[in-house]
């Protein structure tokens, strides 16, 4: 397995995003499923924050599964759209019944939409996050197009072993404010 290089201070040195994605996929495949612990921390955090409507995600293999949150919150599921421009649309959780090209369940194209302005919190999956909240996604940029004007809570949901000191970031990246791992909730370092 690839091991991230360290600089003299022990911080990870940014590889390019492709190298980080390779490392994260390899590392994630060796980790146990912490979905129950992550979800328990999220329930407490979201309740204390007063969140009611939450944009979640349908988990891909290796991602923490947050579907149990549907018992406590009104969850929404995203749909990736590619025309006329790439973007995410938001829909009721239970409408996610068709397989996306990425391998996760998504709502069909004609599912009723919910505006982002009606959302209290957004939970973002990723291959890795850094302590600043920078997300290493899958390369589509969908969340970076969705979040620039969002004023609610943004939470990266990840296995703790995939939180690193520093990832490469582009100007359009939208770091999250919180990280949810099996060890609890952590405010990101801005």
Note the main attributes of this structure:
single chain, 190 residues, alpha/beta, seven-stranded mixed sheet, 17% helix
Topology:
Blueprint: H1 17-28, H2 35-49, E1 53-55, E2 74-81, E3 87-92, E4 98-99, E5 105-106, E6 121-124, E7 128-130, E8 135-136, H3 142-146, E9 153-157, E10 163-164, E11 178-181, E12 184-187
Parallel strand pairs: 1-2, 1-6, 6-9, 7-10, 9-11
Antiparallel strand pairs: 2-3, 4-5, 7-8, 11-12
Architecture overview:
With 190 residues, the chain is of the alpha/beta class. It has a single domain (17-187), classed as NagB/RpiA/CoA transferase-like (Rossmann fold, 3-Layer(aba) Sandwich), CATH 3.40.50. It has three helices and twelve strands; from the N terminus they run H-H-E-E-E-E-E-E-E-E-H-E-E-E-E. It has helices spanning 17-28, 35-49, 142-146; strands at 53-55, 74-81, 87-92, 98-99, 105-106, 121-124, 128-130, 135-136, 153-157, 163-164, 178-181, 184-187. The strands form three sheets. It has a seven-stranded mixed sheet with strand order 3-2-1-6-9-11-12. Strand 2 (74-81) and strand 3 (87-92) form a beta hairpin. It is globular, with a radius of gyration of 16 Å. The mean pLDDT is 91.
């Amino acid at each position: 397995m690839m091991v991230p290089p360290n600089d003299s201070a022990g911080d990870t040195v940014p590889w390019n995003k492709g190298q980080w994605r390779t490392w994260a996929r390899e590392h994630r495949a060796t980790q146990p499923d912490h979905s129950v612990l992550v979800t328990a921390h999220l329930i407490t955090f979201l309740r204390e924050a007063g969140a009611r409507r939450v944009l979640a995600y349908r988990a891909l293999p290796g991602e923490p599964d947050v579907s149990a949150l549907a018992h406590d919150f009104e969850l929404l599921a995203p749909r990736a759209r590619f025309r006329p421009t790439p973007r995410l649309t938001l829909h009721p959780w239970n409408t996610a019944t068709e397989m996306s090209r990425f391998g996760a369940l998504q709502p069909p194209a004609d599912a009723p939409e919910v505006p982002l302005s009606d959302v209290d919190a957004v939970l973002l999956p990723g291959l890795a996050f850094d302590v600043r909240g920078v997300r290493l996604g899958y390369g589509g940029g969908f969340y970076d197009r969705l979040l620039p004007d969002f004023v609610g809570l943004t939470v990266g949901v990840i296995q703790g072993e995939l939180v690193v000191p520093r990832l490469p970031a582009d100007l359009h990246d939208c770091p999250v404010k919180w990280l949810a791992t099996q060890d609890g909730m952590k405010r990101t370092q801005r």
